[in-house]
Every structure is written in structure tokens, then in C-alpha cells.
Amino acid sequence: MTRKEQKEMRQKQIMFKALELFVTKGFAETKISDIAEELGISVGLLFHYYESKEKLYLELVKMGVEGTKNSEKLPFDEPLQYFGGVLENLLAAASEQPWVCMMFVLMAQAQRPGIPEEIRQLALTVDQIRFSAGLIEQGQKLGTIREGDPLALSNAFWCSVQGIMEYHAAVPEMPLPEPEWILDILRRKD
């Protein structure tokens, strides 16, 4: 393994352990020494990779923002297909990579007061509910998505996803639902 690969591997280890601790203990209660201790490394070595707890948290939030942007770029012919694709990708990733669920928790926490304002403002740029409301409206015009307030439908859909991810982060042995079950929140019934 090259030195560069070792450095990248260590950065990932730090980020994933920090994610776990930020989610379980909260930003304010997590100390940089807690992260270092969990990893069995010195605080000095951790500071070599991330100069502060805030910078480490910021990197995690940036990762969450990028993940959201990537899902918004999924190709689709019809809005319901987009939501189905997002659900399939999310639930498959959640079943294989526990950090995916933790990222949902972290991004929700990062939008609350008490987080450094620069980080909070970045987290607030993620607004899947409003983005999805436009797609829902398109699907309603096509007749594939049920009638109703697009913003309220989007809220119901994303709050269901958020709740599932949060619960799965806390109880990983809980089976995940089928994507179709959640998609039925939006699907037009004839």
C-alpha cells in the first residue's frame, strides 16, 4: 500500500468514527480526544488530518451535501421512476453500509441551532422536500402521482425515509422496507 493510500484510508477511518460519535453523542458532546481514543491514535495524529472538530464535522456535512446532489442527478423518464430509483439506491446502500443511515441523522442534526453557523448554513442548502415537490407536481400532471399538495406529499415521503434511516442507524438488525411500500405514499391509486 502506498503512502497516499494509507493516508486516504486513515482519513476515511477518522471520518467514519467521527460520524458514528457525532450521531450517537451529538456535536457538542463529542470531543476530538473521544474520536482519537476510539481509533487508538493520538490527538496529535488526528489533528494532522483535521485541524479541528469543526473542520471534521464540516467535511462530513460536505459529504452529505454531495450525496444529495448526486441523487438529484439520477436519470429518469418520469418522476415516479426517479423516486423509485432513489429509494432502491438508498435502501440497498443502507443495508450494506451502516454509515449511510448515520449520514441521514447527521445531516438532520447539522441543520439545528447549536451547530457552528457556517456548517449549519451548508446543511440547510439540502432541501430535498422542496426539490421533490416540483417533481411531484410534474408526476401529478402526468397522472402517475396522487393528487394533493406537492409540498405535503414530498414532506410525507422524505419524513418516512428519514425516520426509516434514523431507526435503522439505531437498530441495524431491523429489516428495511421494500422500496415499493414507501413509493406508495406518492403513487396514484386508480
What count of domains describes the coordinates? Answer: 1
Q: End-to-end span in angstroms?
A: 58 Å
> What is the number of strand segments?
0
What share of the residues does DSSP label as strand, in percent?
Answer: under 5%
Largest sheet at a glance? none
Output mean pLDDT: 94
Q: Per the principal axes of the C-alpha atoms, what is the gross shape?
A: elongated
Overview of the structural elements:
The chain has 190 residues and is an all-alpha fold. It has one domain: Tetracycline Repressor, domain 2. Helix content is 73%, strand content 0%. The protein contains 10 helices and no strands. Helix 1 packs across helix 2 and helix 1 crosses helix 6. The N and C termini lie far apart (58 Å). The model has no long low-confidence stretch (mean pLDDT 94).
